[in-house]
Amino acid sequence: MRLPLTRDIPWANWLLFAIAIVLLVIGFRRAQRKVLPGIVTTLGLAIAVFFGIFTIVLTRQLPASTAAPHVGQKAPDFTLPDSTGHLVSLSQLEATSPRGVLLIFYRGYW
C-alpha cells in the first residue's frame, strides 16, 4: 500500500500482521469444522512468515559505495534532459546560478 504509515514505518506492518494472526487463530479455534479454517490459517501464517523473512533478511543495508560522493563533496558533472527535452548539464547550472545548485534525488512515481 502507498499509505505513509505502512510504507515508511515497518513496525506498523508488523502490528497489522500480528493482529491478523491473532484473528486467524481465534477464528480457527471457534470453527466447527477444522479443514478449511486450518488451510486458511496455515496460508495466513505462511504469508506472515514470508513477510518477516523478506523484511528482515532481504532488505538489509546495501554495502557502502566507495565511489559515491560524500557530504559536502562536489558532485561530478552530468548532463540530463529537462522536462522539455533540452539537455542541461550541472556545470551549466552552476555557471548561471551565483548561489549554487541544490540537487534533489527523488525516488517516486511521476
Question: What does it look like?
Answer:
- The chain has 110 residues and is mainly alpha-helical.
- The protein has a domain at 4-58.
- The protein contains four helices and two strands; from the N terminus they run αααββα.
- It has helices spanning 4-8, 10-30, 35-58, 90-96, and strands at 79-81, 87-89.
- The chain has a two-stranded antiparallel ribbon with strand order 1-2.
- The longest helix is centred in the middle third of the chain and has 24 residues, at 35-58.
Amount of beta strand: 5-15%
Backbone structural class: mainly alpha
Mean pLDDT: 82
**Count of discrete alpha- or pi-helical segments spanning 4 or more residues:** 4
Q: How does the overall form come out from the CA principal axes?
A: elongated
The number of distinct β-strands equals 2
Order of helices and strands: HHHEEH
Q: End-to-end distance, in Å?
A: 17 Å
Gyration radius, in Å: 24 Å
Low-confidence stretches: none
Task: Identify the strand order in the major beta sheet.
Answer: 1-2
Q: How does the major sheet shape up?
A: 2 strands, antiparallel
In helices, the fraction of residues equals 40-55%
What's the structural blueprint in terms of helices and strands?
Layout: H1 4-8, H2 10-30, H3 35-58, E1 79-81, E2 87-89, H4 90-96
Helix pairs in contact: 2-3
